[in-house]
Design brief:
mainly alpha; Arc Repressor Mutant, subunit A; 65% helix
């Protein structure tokens, strides 16, 4: 029984500068397509998928380097709402950006940013509700204080204040009925008493 040839294991480690140079030379001749053939032509111990990702994400000349701008971030957010996690389609609308770069940026930055905004949006109505309750309690407390002050003022006026409605009658009954200097038969004191009584009643009315 003959032994079947074992499948050659491909290299899955980091790419070297020599491998990058060979891959770029073969793609310059045959184009960026048919990646299994490209790997064989370049005599690389790599699979076709590895060659494609290396070219698209690192070696192609039109890759845009540097941080993602605010405009690009806004576009990624809008496209993600429409396309979801279809990173290659999103990258196709951002010239120079790779799908792998956009996916990594989403997972490391944008997804956390969205979750934080959602928490803040949910917390805002609760904060407004607490502020409304606090304002209502302050108004109620102020109203109760005003009512209490009003009641205290009313009680003070009714008990300790001056009664402006009662007539001030200056009448000393002992002096009025002192007849030591009067003639017992003189009835003038009776006329004074009647006049004084009529005057007091007219003032009270």
């Amino acid at each position: 029984m003959t032994n079947l040839p074992t499948k050659k294991e491909v290299n899955k480690g980091a790419w070297t500068e020599e491998e990058d140079r060979k891959l770029a030379e073969v793609i310059a001749i045959h184009g960026a397509k048919r990646w299994k053939m490209i790997a064989a032509k370049a005599n690389l111990n790599r699979c076709g998928k590895s060659c494609r990702l290396r070219w698209l994400n690192y070696l192609r000349p039109n890759i845009k380097r540097g941080n993602i701008s605010d405009q690009e971030e806004d576009l990624i957010l809008r496209l993600h709402k429409l396309l979801g996690n279809r990173w290659s389609l999103i990258a196709g609308r951002l010239p120079g950006r790779t799908d792998n770069e956009i996916k990594n940026y989403w997972n490391s930055h944008l997804s956390k940013k969205i979750k934080l905004n959602e928490k803040q949006t949910m917390a805002a109505p609760r904060a407004r509700s607490r502020a409304h309750k606090r304002t209502s309690m302050e108004r109620a407390h102020k109203r109760m204080s005003m009512e209490e002050n009003c009641e205290n003022n009313c009680v003070s006026n009714s008990t300790g204040g001056v009664d402006h409605g009662a007539p001030n009658i200056n009448f000393n009954i002992d002096d009025f009925f002192d007849f030591s200097n009067e003639d017992p038969l003189n009835l003038e004191w009776m006329s004074k008493f009647i006049e004084k009584t009529d005057l007091d009643f007219s003032v009270m009315m």
